[in-house]
Amino acid sequence: xxxxxxxxxxxxxxxxxxxxxxxxxxxxxxxxxxxxxxxxxxxxxxxxxxxxxxxxxxxxxxxxxxxxxxxxxxxxxxxxxxxxxxxxxxxxxxxxxxxxxxxxxxxxxxxxxxxxxxxxxxxxxxxxxxxxxxxxxxxxxxxxxxxxxxxxxxxxxxxxxxxxxxxxxxxxxxxxxxxxxxxxxxxxxxxxxxxxxxxxxxxxxxxxxxxxxxxxxxxxxxxxxxxxxxxxxxxxxxxxxxxxxxxxxxxxxxxxxxxxxxxxxxxxxxxxxxxxxxxxxxxxxxxxxxxxxxx
Amino acid sequence: xxxxxxxxxxxxxxxxxxxxxxxxxxxxxxxxxxxxxxxxxxxxxxxxxxxxxxxxxxxxxxxxxxxxxxxxxxxxxxxxxxxxxxxxxxxxxxxxxxxxxxxxxxxxxxxxxxxxxxxxxxxxxxxxxxxxxxxxxxxxxxxxxxxxxxxxxxxxxxxxxxxxxxxxxxxxxxxxxxxxxxxxxxxxxxxxxxxxxxxxxxxxxxxxxxxxxxxxxxxxxxxxxxxxxxxxxxxxxxxxxxxxxxxxxxxxxxxxxxxxxxxxxxxxxxxxxxxxxxxxxxxxxxxxxxxxxxx
Lengths: 295, 295
Prior knowledge:
2 copies of one chain form a homodimer. The first copy, chain A, is mainly alpha-helical. Chain A has a single domain (3-292), classed as Farnesyl Diphosphate Synthase (Orthogonal Bundle), CATH 1.10.600. Helices cover 75% and strands 1% of the residues of chain A. In chain A, strands 1-2 form a two-stranded antiparallel sheet. Chain A is globular, with a radius of gyration of 18 Å. Chain A starts with a helix and ends with a helix. The interface between A and B is large, with 53 and 53 residues.
């Protein structure tokens, strides 16, 4: 990672992490256990890739990160809700996430379902309330809903569960799953930032192309890290996917072809935003990082 | 029920029921099982009280029901998602709803969780996309999110689960639960209709007061029907609450005091919208019906 990207990422991450609990605390008559359960997962750390991309995209389009903060926090709430629900016993049945017990292990299944529901709903509340231009707010609600709903992230999870039951899949099916389960929301991070900065339709299209390509590359890089990564740097076990018999790019097309596919996608992403010039530099650095990351 | 109300209710209900599947079918690449699971619960019938109130409120404010149809369908999606999640084994663990097996019994827990998530998300998509005035669309997203999120419906469900664990409660606690679990969403039905018709702040306030009072009265009437209702007309078992040891108004303050409380609330509701004159007549009829209903 370049020093400039590292610095900007950290600054944006801290802005998001300072704002998130304020949105959750904004209502005085929030039930206390619900608040705790929501914050437990929302403040569990992580790279904050999606909200950081929202702020970076807004700046790349000539906007201010401050204006984009509600959308950044909203997308992190949606991402968090999806993790909480995916970890449930009826879904992936995971007991650990980022080295800590998952939400339902700590608060029980009922509260984990409700905390997820509440985070998803609060995401739309935050956008509708705190994005000052109400026409932009409506556009952002639409963008986020499409990315996370029944043709976006939820569709990806449905396809993922179906593929696990079926036991085998083609690389086309895997790509279909990834593009929906993680790709659409990551793409939305870019376009939300662009919308808040009132980017024109051409720029929004370029951001969407960048987001789609980086989103898939990120997933392939994740699969590769599970095969070749250093468990210490990653903060989680490797070889987990292979042991669980999970569908991955390396298992389907091999590590070399996976790496070359990811490289092609990153090239595609950088080309898509080449018209943004100097302002697009942080996004170019980000795309390069996805390829080279070791955690 | 007056003949006029009966006719209008039926007409609005059919409009909502004709539109709902169109919104779910709007996306070509919807996963088929997800669509089935969403439609199974969305098209399970029922009174359609909330969406009908949206359309009636819009008309009472001088608007057209057509403009209010997206908001009406959205609120029914939110109501349906809440039923699907409430019925889950980890929550109320109900196998039957409206005489049919519940969603998770038919489609499995994972799909029921995802169908609920998808319905909630689609509700915001429909509002943001199909309400033509984007500033009104953003207001409606905010209204619906507040009513259904962590200070609204979800808070009510959290309080309800907590009270069940505690085993006993006061009438104040019961009112707190009902106002959140069912009251806020019902109130939102009224204000969504008003917002689409561009009602002024005073009218929105009157509609909210009406909605809050009718919402609580509706719940008390529900409790009373469980004690005194005719199972055939209701299409469900009575005495279920008492058997399950569930908190109800009759169990806490007796049937007579419950009825008189409901009557007071209906009076309050009618007074709140008295300024609307002739246009408010259907809402007055609706409030009276809540009190006299036998199903």
